[in-house]
Protein 1
Amino acid sequence: MKESLSKTALIISFGTLLSKFGGLARQLVIAGAFGISAAYDAYNYAYVIPGFFLILIGGINGPLHNAVVTVLSKTNNKESAYIINSINLSITFLLLFAGGFLFLFSDPLIKLIAPGLEQEVHNIAVVQLKIMSPIIPLSGLIGIGFGSLNAKNTFFITTISPIISSFTVICGVGLFWLTKESFVDTDPIQLAIKGGVIIAQATLIGAFTQWVVQIPSLIKKDLFRFNLKIDLKHPGVKEIWGVLTPATLSSGMLQINVITDLFFASSIAGAAAGLGYANFLVQTPLGIISSGLILPLLPVLSKLANKNDQKKFINKVRQGLIISSGTMIALGSIFITLGPSIVNIIYGRGAFDSRAIDVVGGLLIIYGVGMPAYLCRDLLVRVFYTLGDAVVPLRISIIGIVLNIILDWLLIGSSLPFGLINPINFGARGLVLATIGVNIFSCVILLLKLNNKLSRTIPIKQWAIDFCKLLVCGIISGIIALKTNDTMSIYLGNNIIIQLLKIIIPSLTGIIGFLVSGRILNIQEMNKVLNIIKGILISS
């Protein structure tokens, strides 16, 4: 099982890495073409609802994906195809209705999400939302296809399909970037609308391609069938809906927090664009680790839960948490110490000026602090799903929404109709701090609830000690990376190659410091990683 899990994790990580590079190229093109201008600021508001569905319903590790994997991993291909057909039809009908609603009421929806937008940005966002509304029904087809293939041990195609989506955006936005100099006589507002339309159209085409590329693999696995029969009474269909409904509500609470953040961000010029750029840099490593660890771990936990093997189940959960938090603390320490430099080397060209670098660099530092809590919360929620319990994550998520609204309001000045009543105003950074607070709260409560569910057999105290050790390793790693960067700045110049080396070398020294510190503090997983590295070096 360990060998199979490692092989699957490697395939998924490689495919996800390719997709993340594609996503990075996409963001580079967007940054160069738009910076933090009105067109991209509007796009972040327009995409929030289609993106909500694409991530929640169509995304890997989303509730639909997880529900399909859990059920289909226990059935043969013939029964799986029957279940898929019923789920496809029922979900698509619902999502077609939702997409039509989005198209018809795009203007009031943008006003609801972002009441503080300037009229120019609002108008662009409305047009973009109409264009991207078909993404909603597409998300159901994408999510079911991903889950079906993963349940039958086909992982690579699902992890690389996003790169095709990124390619369409790169082509569309890239062409606009290369040709927009020819529109010098065009009214700036009309030019912004043109750019906004192009990025929305490219996003829609990209979502469509994500579904299309799955079809050959589904046909090969004999999972692509179509008839108009919907059997809601089939045990597998009932089980998927039973897990999907509360799980969607629970995971949706996290997306509602995103909407809440954008609601408050609409009164801060360029905040949505800045949050979008910084969040991408954080989500890149998060996505790789999440797909490489949580995705293959989910079926293993499901099988152990069915066998009632509680000891192995707890060990797997601990292993997942230590690896998740360890990697995120190490990467977070790098983002904290090198944030502005990372933003400059990645985005600093075209329309992405020094102001944009300062805004996004500051946000990346704050995001780095909260990376461990984000991924651990994600893992713990899915642990509950494997135990067939989506109610506890739902309840905690509801509390988290209320907490997020309160923290957002408090950390950006506590605005009232007659002005700000709170001297504490962190601006866009306050919105990130609020999200971090909610994720930490959720992690603690989820872990305590899981311990109760498993008859208090989790060694909470020992896990807490191990986590504190990881934090110490992270502090040491950050100090090493910072000192290395400072030393290089004294003796080296500042051309593009040197700037790149001033990120790579401090990052490598920081990670080495993290692993060595972990070994000194006797963290089991760090010992294993160093032994693997040692073995590779000796054999070479």
Note: The longest strand covers residues 415-416.
Protein 2
Amino acid sequence: MDASSVQYCRQSPPCLTAWSLGCLCVLIVASGCASLNSASNKSKSDPTMSTAANRPDPEPPNTIFKNPFAKKPPREIIDPELGLPEYDAALVKYEKKDYEGAAKDFKQVVKKFYDYPVEEDAMFMLGECYFSDKRYAWAQDAYDGLIKKYPSTRYLEKSTRRLFSIGAIWLNGDGTAKTDELLQVSATDVTDPEAVKRKELPTAIPLAPNFYDKSRPLFDTPGNALKALKSVWLHDPMGPLADDAVMLTAIYYIRKHSYRDADHYLDILRREYPKSEHSQTAFVVGSYVKQINYQGPRYDNRDLIDADDLIHSTLNMFPNVPDKEGLKAELVKIRERGAERYWERAQYYKGRMKPAAETIYCETLVKEYPDSEYTKLALARLKVLGPKYWTGMLDQYPEVETAEVPSAEKKSPSVLPKLTPKKSRLTAPPPKGSATEDPQFPSRRGRQVPPPGKSNPPLETLPETEPTDEDRPKSDGDAPPIRRRVDDPEFVEGQTGGGIEQISGKDEVGRARP
């Protein structure tokens, strides 16, 4: 191959690339024009497509490549009666109780007349078909879809009633608006659930599928029931069934012994629906639920304080509340638990061997809870601690018997004599290379070792009194210690001791002080 042919091969790919790109552009424009022509022909043949400029086509043909330069048709007024014949035909099937056929027709209306006025009615009737056919899971999705797209729909109250009935049925209720049997709860359900015979709740494994009952969802029937109840009070908070939905949710968690979740929904009921018929029950049962959530004296006492506030509020707001004496007895128990917290804290500091802190908690216990059983224990402990640690918080302290202190002659011979206290840090360290420095550890300043040939005296021969300055060992070159009073203006700040402090004759770097 000669040089000219090689040069032609090298230059040919750019030409081919340009030619191929031009062909591709022609195909794109042609496909866009064809899609526009097909859409215009379809609008002429189908009268329902004459006003389709305001809504997207559910199945647009060949709209992948759109013409960006095409003019948009003018916005037309939507005909409110568009789609009514199809809707009426589906409604006839519903009245004949052909729920399955009516559901298919309503679904076609919803799909075909997207964003048209007839869509809202068709979505509601679709849920009604599923509910009448006892396919509650499908009905729940239909009602939720309607409320999600039309939050202020005229079918809001009817939809929330259906959702409440679905939740009640899935919780083994009768599906009525009241569901009296499921809404019954008392303090005994919290304190002694075995003594109350209630209708059993559904027991379903969340991951176990349901293939035999079309009235229940495929997975997790109780969870979907709580979801339906949540849609009631979340989307229609001022509706007639909002407080019933919240109360039924709280009762479900109580009967499942999930008291933390039950406390959350009872709190919502007390705050958001104070005029509800379940308000008194929420106050009474809520106080018992708070006490169960209290974990003990070593944990936070917020639940205990809230329970005390709820009982006082119940007695003030509902003077004719049943079992008033039982509520007063619960107040006594709560106070006893409060005293237990102080006693537990005093025992903690007793184990840490901090008598001053232990005394503070014992005195607080005696002052705040004088009628408690723990007060007797606190007084006995204060008597043992003695006046040395008393803070004066109490007006009257227990009498302390003064015991006779044994004299030195009556000491037992097994008791060791008093050891020499540790030397002050202000003592000057020995110079390097002196006889008193430890040869093995020369960097440890101030480590005193006995001279060669001498050993430490035995423990029994140590003096019982503190040695004086003359008795302390002195190294060569040390200046005599200087005594200064605390009120001396040259007194070094930070030193502790009595009125006179000892300062070595050298400073920290070994230089002689002036």
Note: Residues 6 and 12 are 10 Å apart (CA to CA).
Protein 3
Amino acid sequence: MSCVVSRTIRTLLTGRLTASRPLYATVAVVLAHLLTLLAVTAPAAAQPLVAPIPQTITLTAEERAAYQAELKRIDARANELRSTLDNPARGNPMEIFNGYLPVFIVAFLTTLLVTPIFRRMAIAYGVIDRPDEARKHHKFPIAYMGGVAVYCGIVAAIAFSYLAPLHGLITFHSTKYIPEYRDLPFPVPMSILFGMTIVMLIGLWDDVAKVAPLQKVGGQLLAAAALAMNDVGVKVAKQVLLPIGEWVGNKDLIWNIPIPLDIPGLGHSIPIDVMYWTGTAIIAIFVLGACNASNLIDGLDGLLSGVTAICAGGLLVVAIGMAMWDNGPLDAARITLCLALLGACMGFLPHNFNPATIFLGDSGSLLLGYTTIVIVLMLGDTGQTNLVLAGLIIYAIPMIDTALAIIRRKMSGQSISAADDQHLHHILKRKLGVQGAVYVLYLMGFGFAALGILLTLERGRITYALTLVLAAFIGVIAFKVARRKQFEEQAAKLRLSTGQAAGSSTESVATAANVTLAPAAAQGQLPAATPSMVTDGVSSASAVAPPGGV
């Protein structure tokens, strides 16, 4: 092709108009060369830019697995983008919040009004908390049963949401998740109400008649089992287990174990759903941990109710954000439960803030811990484990205090259930007083709530780093202060043992001095040595010896 091009250019540049080559002949030659050039170069231009892929490609097993993983990743990302395009944001946050606001008002007013009634009832039946100077700051008995008032507020708000088709005062957000039996979004599951009732009653029983620890644990596990049976929270670990399922070649992590018998409803195999049972175990751990963590920090006026209100507010922001994108069928239930919990805590707080006239009691502390952790579990309803972690960060104050208590008691050789006065609120109370300690813990609660919300905005590394630093700082300072008392006791014992050893050494030296100086004293030359004449283990006989020496 290069020779054709050069020949054409040379003809164009050197061609002369002569008698033997007139003008039309020169033009004809040039056109002939151009056509030749096009004929030669046309096949090259028509060739594809990329070589055709052979019909068969030989790949190794590793290359095939890598290609399949990449295709799955691209497919998952495409589905995610497609879901985002199919589900645009449905309204703004303030519109959603305004539509559900009546739920908060019902919970707030109900709790505010029924709390004095339960206070009088508690005093009449002697359900009171008697002062304990070692760990409790109040000087006279305070009524319990505040938890029953909070329970009434939450249940009234949830019942109000159930009756929304009748009164029409709740404006639900736009969603495609509509059950067949009603024209409104899914309500709060009945299993949550059942669990709330169980933990409140077991706590009230403990306030009135003192329940064995195993019985309290049994009631909490029963409430957790109700959640698992209703599939509330069983997908909390999906985001973590899904890659494991793809790696082992069983995406759903369900295995059918063959059995020789034909069981009705199961057939000849028993299905083992690893994802479901892992979620069930996590539910049980979370419920037990949260109920007891909330119980442990309920040590100052207004502390638990205020911290729980802050947690409910942070979880409400996350829940509204999820509802904007129509995340799942429990969006409306999450918002309803958050507002019910927030309203009940705010309605109880005026009665419970320092100086308190009524306490939550175990019925209230267990109820608040259970309700809060249920909302956290509901954040993972569609398998988004990162949102569950965000909820746990929002609930960090009770978790940190409980972890420190367990470590502290283990290191001091005490039982985990043993009571002490080294909790975060006790430490702060000794420095800042009751209200100062409560305000500081409120501020910490706001900080962790902000970090949890930040995590939902795709700021994972920043949030985890800040949470780690803040939790470590609080934990180390609190642990150091709490252990100071034990260090002082050990130092006192060491000084006492050292003093006793020095005293026995002094007595031995004095006895030896008496034996040595006894003959001289008998002759009237020296007085008898006494322990008072011995300093630092050395006899002071030389100080009283006559000028002539001994």
Note: Residues 11-21, 42-46, 525-550 have pLDDT under 50 and may be disordered.
